[in-house]
């Protein structure tokens, strides 16, 4: 069975590192965008450590440009430690398959936050219970969506069904809420990175069902999560005819905001009318 530890395990190679991505970490036939974030961040931290970096530094920000969607399998990770500083360090990573660069990313490494926040405004996600209620919708391996969203074989994902009117053939706000955790492994900052892209595209609730390719995604992991469930809210404040920006906020069971992200993606192409 695939594991998250295996996903983010990288091996030293000429020009950087390599990784082997199991088909479990796919949506349809292509590697899940959040899984790619975790792999890229892992390669960046490994390169930083191999360059003599401080062991308590971790990826706190990653900004990725998706030039294409790679297949699962072997992937090259070309790294360059651009800065190794006392407060922040900076590593660039390219994900290469064959002779094509599929993703290029910039990763900032530093010490993550700890303790209580100095200031925090109320967020919609605060109203959610720390763990999913009994009536939460489970996207488990038996769910029909598992044929497409295979990540659910390793990660438990449960939705607040009231934020998925699309499953009943209705439309509603461009928002989803839910909970996610690994089935058999502890949470980590790298998994929180993956989870900043865990929701199905929120434009599905507007009738935009289909592939919504991510163009660019910036995610931050401000603190290491406590083990347990991460609750998330994904939303798109504005949806255009072609583009939308989707935001994720993730809170751990201790009530702290662990990670956030914003991505620019394309609205799925309209389906042709049935004849």
TrEMBL record:
InterPro entries reported for this sequence: ACOT8-like_C, Acyl-CoA_hotdog, HotDog_dom_sf, Sec_Metab_Biosynth-Assoc, TesB_ACOT8-like_N
Where is each Acyl-CoA thioesterase-like N-terminal HotDog domain found?
22-109
Give every Acyl-CoA thioesterase-like C-terminal domain span. 139-267
- Pfam families assigned to the protein according to its UniProt record, in alphabetical order: 4HBT_3, 4HBT_3C
Q: Name the chain's protein.
A: Thioesterase family protein
Q: Which organism is it from?
A: Tsukamurella asaccharolytica
């Amino acid at each position: 069975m695939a594991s998250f530890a295996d996903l983010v395990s990288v091996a030293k190679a000429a020009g950087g590192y390599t990784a082997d991505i199991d088909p479990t970490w796919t949506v349809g036939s292509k590697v899940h965008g959040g899984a790619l974030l975790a792999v890229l961040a892992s390669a960046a931290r490994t390169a930083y450590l191999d360059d003599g970096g401080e062991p308590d530094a971790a990826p706190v920000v990653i900004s990725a440009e998706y030039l294409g969607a790679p297949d699962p399998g072997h992937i090259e990770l070309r790294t360059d430690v651009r800065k190794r500083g006392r407060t922040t360090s900076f590593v660039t990573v390219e994900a290469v398959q064959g002779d094509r660069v599929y993703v290029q990313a910039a990763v900032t490494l530093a010490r993550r936050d700890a303790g209580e926040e100095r200031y925090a405004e109320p967020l919609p996600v605060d109203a959610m219970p720390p763990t999913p209620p009994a009536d939460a919708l489970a996207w488990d391996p038996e769910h029909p969506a598992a044929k497409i969203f295979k990540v659910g074989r390793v990660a438990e994902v449960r939705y607040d069904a009231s934020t998925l009117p699309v499953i009943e053939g209705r439309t509603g706000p461009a928002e989803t809420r839910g909970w996610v955790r690994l089935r058999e492994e502890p949470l980590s900052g790298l998994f929180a990175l993956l989870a900043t892209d865990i929701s199905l595209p929120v434009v599905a609730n507007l009738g935009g069902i289909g592939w919504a390719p991510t163009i660019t995604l910036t995610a931050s992991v401000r603190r290491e999560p406590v083990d347990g469930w991460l609750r998330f809210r994904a939303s798109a404040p504005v949806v255009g005819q072609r583009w939308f920006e989707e935001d994720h906020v993730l809170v751990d069971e201790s009530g702290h905001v662990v990670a956030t992200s914003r991505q620019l993606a394309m609205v799925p192409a309209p389906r042709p009318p049935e004849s």
